[in-house]
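@channel anyone free to eyeball this complex?
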Amino acid sequence: MTSIEAHVLQPYKYGFVTDIESESVPPGLSEDVIQLISAKKGEPEWMLEWRLKAYRHWLTMTEPTWANVKYGPIDYQAISYYAAPKQRPKVESLDQVDPKLLETFEKLGIPIAEQKRLAGVAVDAVFDSVSVATTFRAELAKFGVIFCPISEAIREHPDLVRQYLGTVVPTNDNYFAALNSAVFTDGSFAFIPKGVRCPLELSTYFRINASSTGQFERTLIIAEEGSHVSYLEGCSAPTRDENQLHAAVVELVALDNAQIKYSTIQNWYPGDEEGKGGIYNFVTKRGACRGKNSKISWTQVETGSAITWKYPGCLLQGDGSIGEFYSVAVTNHRQQADTGTKMIHIGKNTKSTIVSKGISAGHGQNTYRGLVKIMKGAEGARNYSQCDSMLIGDQCGAHTFPYIDVRNSSAIMEHEASTSKIGEDQIFYCKQRGLSAEDAVSMIVNGFCKEVFKELPMEFAVEAQNLLGISLEGSVG
Amino acid sequence: MTDQFLLEIKDLHASVEGKEILRGVSLRVRTGEVHAVMGPNGSGKSTLAQVLAGHPAYTVTGGSVRYDGKDLLELAPEERAREGVFLAFQYPVSIRGITNSYFLRSAVNAIRKHKGEPELDPLDFLQVLEDKLKAIGWDDSLMNRAVNEGFSGGEKKRNEILQLAVLEPRLAILDETDSGLDIDALKTVAEAVNQLRSPERSFVVVTHYQRLLNYIVPDHVHVLAEGRIVKSGGKELALTLEEKGYDWVKPEGAAVS
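replying in thread with the prediction:
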């Protein structure tokens, strides 16, 4: 199996460090630190109060241990909660952005300089704790679309933020969500007004650069009645021996007939072959389908992080609303992933679809954990779940924990699961037709993930390809 | 003088999991010839086919194989394929989510790249495919399905021959292509193979039963037993075998299992 594994277990390509002067607050967490963060962001009083309330609640909580992952204790006092490149550039003028930052994002394949921008994609680039640039803002504003760093939205659009922030993921939702609510630094805010189809893909790229810091981003997307938006996030971090914490919260709100498509390409540093270093990716993502016939679709390609703990879910409140979850999670070396979704059916005739593909290689451990809950009033609810696992080698593991809770007898539930193994016979078959082992593995893995890849926005097909080190061409063959 | 042989196997020994299966096979195939290798179950027929293709489960412990003047055993399986060695598998594997058409185009392009020829884009490839299908009289119904996924036994075998047609190998090894086929499917496959016979292409047809050879008439027939070729002859040898059974040729002192 070694030849197969060698081609799957490619080295991390985004592990470089940008040498840039940055300012950070000393490690440690206290009300003083939260006040400092809030002051640095120029936040109004209500925001600070909101943070402090979350912090005080967090102090009463204990870290969850139910996930199928193993790691040592996290010292929350050893983490710096704010780091930013010095001389923060004005967002309006890219000329003032430190060229090292532009270079960094360009190296990551996310050009933000005017002349090199990705066509059809507006990008918010977040470096450590701050947003350094957001492209195409003026163009979006013509349509009434607001796309900006959340720190700016708190200052410029306080009514919108106050109305929605914390309404999908309450500050006391869980340990990491509470921590995030207390200390979040930046992230993206998007507002799509009534009836508007967002003319561009919206995208945020998160880069952790500074050491001994955590990244705590917060994203809020609001789609008003009849609007449509497609959003994609990507991320990476330098190669380091230490574990760094990334605890994000993402909230989505879809009103009547609105549609939000949220795609993630997660490529945080996964740690080395022995499991040294890597990001702890403990993330809470949830979307509320508040309106009738609204739709929220999550697509995630999770290839990085030492540990992934994340369950993007949907609250299907509006009658006829639809939730979707498409996931590819890859664990190799010593990576661990416990990921899946929560679909809560509340409204009548709500539908959810779950397609999860777990790929384990090396000593990787991959767990699918999903909850489908049909509430009493959810007449005529439907769910389809499909969980497929692929094993590469004989040292890895795949686990599936589907929870189903049905309280209305009219529900129709379907669940399918499979486990397969890439074998030498499959590789040999491809080689006998002239393909290299690398291309063979690519093809087999790609075919396995096809149902998820076809959900990704076209513009990001290349990025997914780079990440899995595999060719996407097969999905359009 | 060896140049006139496309394939020259000398005293080939091979084992799997420490057990010797091939115990000194020698066989020479000229360009354009069709050789049938027959033998009872467990005689080593499929092992011979797999060893020629380079399956990693088999270890060559002695002897040599020359192909087109090269040491075949020195080449990696994918290099053998790109040099024109094709194996029609007895049990083709399936690849979920990848269409036959995409798979075949990738294979064609891997081979073209090896030869220094430009790769075919999807439209060019469709044209090539159409021509090949026309030549063997088949439709494209298998092309947009995932590789062997949910194929019937007959469809899988047909798919192997279709790949043979498109990849245009110089040496085609058919490993029990007749197994599991009813008589109609057998005829369809055999007719396609006959269309693909050419003075530039050699075939090694591995089969247990003579019936395939009624349709694909070989130039030479060899009988393999206990890892050695124990008898060689013309096409009439297959008929004699059919009549007398494999016991007729079994090596002295050995029971045929």
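from a first look: The longest strand of chain A covers residues 278-289.
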